[in-house]
Amino acid sequence: MVPQVLAQRWGAGYEIYNSRPYSNAGRAAEVVARECGDGCTVVGDWGGVVESVAAHLDGRKIFYVNRDEYGTYATYVADRVEVTWPNAERAVRQFADAVLVTSILGAPAPPSFELVAEFGGSTAGLEDFAVYRLRDGG
Questions:
Q1: Which letter does DSSP use for residue 127 in this model?
Q2: 20 CB contacts (<8 Å, ≥6 apart)?
Q3: Contact at 8 Å (CB) between 54 and 44?
Q4: How confident is the prediction along the chain (138 residues), in pLDDT tens digits per residue?
Q5: Cα separation of 67 and 77, whole Å?
Q6: Is the distance from CB of 123 to CB of 20 less than 8 angstroms?
Q7: How far is Cα 110 from Cα 133, in angstroms, rounded to an integer?
């Protein structure tokens, strides 16, 4: 056990756990709070991932693409909507003012989306986030 403790403190463990954030949810939530005030809807790509951002937004309800409904916590839904860029765009366009928070959808985004902020390099890869707005305002 001594080698594991030493490795954690001075070896690879230090690099992995001390030089990178475990999650970028807090940073993404700061951008969402700034960019998406009252009357703005937060759309998340996948409920099981974006809930960590919702937690930093004091439980603000998020509209989830994969569930096609609002929520504040992870829930199992048997008939999920596939998370694709076209489905995400369709979800965002339902609202007069919205931002999209994504972890599942990969870059590049379609030309209809403008990148507001991107946070990568977390220890937990699914805790890397990007925040988008529609270029035409929705």
A1: G
A2: 121, 122, 123
A3: yes
A4: 666 555 556 555 555 666 777 789 999 999 999 999 988 999 999 887 888 899 899 878 899 998 888 887 666 666 677 889 999 999 999 999 999 999 988 878 999 999 999 998 888 778 899 999 999 855
A5: 7
A6: yes
A7: 11
